[in-house]
Amino acid sequence: MDIFSQEIENYITSHIEPEPDFLKKLVRDTNLYTLKPRMLSGHLQGRLLKMFCAMTGAKRVVEIGTFTGYSALCMAEALPADGEVHTIDINDELEELILNGFDRAGEVGKKIHFHIGDAAELIPQMEGEFDVCFMDGNKRHYMEYLDAVYPKMRMGGLIIADNTLWDGHVLEEDRNDAQTAGIKKFNDSVCADDRFFVTMVPLRDGMTLIRKIK
Ligand SMILES: C[S@@+](CC[C@H](N)C(=O)[O-])C[C@H]1O[C@@H](n2cnc3c(N)ncnc32)[C@H](O)[C@@H]1O
């Protein structure tokens, strides 16, 4: 289901902040060396992630699902020099590509700490509170990620959950494969949970914004 046309996206991306060169190069490497380059956030979503981090004055960010590091770099761009993005990926195969991308970004890349492992296990062991969480791992496990990250978010902190419209499959009542079921359960749960103020952005594949208020 086309919920957001390519023409509109092209128009928007020609009227927003351009991608820095280190991101353009990362997009090229991701297309050359990975099997699913579509997983990368891209220009528009990346600038929005940077904007959210800037608007919330974030200093500490945690990301579930690094892939090649595009979104981690976008969020790091908005942080002060002593800010930190802790990005986690369960897959170690892209480590070299990721670390090269962070190196190429100079001071921006130095704010990023890359962790390999299951985010649902690693986050509870992390020290300190986070201002922003970008949730972009396995769609089957969004509820587990939420349980893991909730106690680590500061009051007023923002959780951004990606792909929550899941190509429009959330509208299909009979579609209940594990990923669609995971996203539907997550969407139903967060909007009924009074610990959160929730809204959704119908951008790209849908992003849910979840503010911790209790
Ligand atoms: C959609 S990609 C992330 C894209 C990236 N955030 C970006 O915008 O460029 C999803 C990533 O989540 C990782 N992943 C899946 N399950 C995970 C888990 N339990 N913990 C950490 N990472 C996980 C996958 O290996 C994959 O690289």
Notes on the structure:
It is a single chain. The protein has 214 residues and is an alpha/beta fold. It has a single domain (6-212), classed as Vaccinia Virus protein VP39 (Rossmann fold). It contains nine helices and seven strands; from the N terminus they run H-H-H-E-H-E-H-H-E-H-E-H-E-H-E-E. The model has no long low-confidence stretch (mean pLDDT 96). The site of S-adenosylmethionine (SAM) has 19 residues, from helix 4, strand 2 and helix 7.
**Any idea what the CATH architecture is?**
3-Layer(aba) Sandwich
Number of strands: 7
Main β-sheet, spatial strand arrangement? 3-2-1-4-5-7-6
Under CATH, the topology is which?
A: Rossmann fold
Shape: globular
Share of helical residues: 25-40%
Structural class given helices, strands, pairing?
A: alpha/beta
| Count of discrete domains | 1
Which stretches of 5+ consecutive residues score pLDDT under 50? none
SSE string? HHHEHEHHEHEHEHEE
Q: Please tell me the overall pLDDT.
A: 96
Question: Whole-number radius of gyration?
Answer: 16 Å
Which CATH class?
Answer: Alpha Beta
Q: Between the first and last Cα atoms, what is the distance in angstroms?
A: 36 Å
Q: Main sheet?
A: 7 strands, mixed
Number of DSSP helices?
9
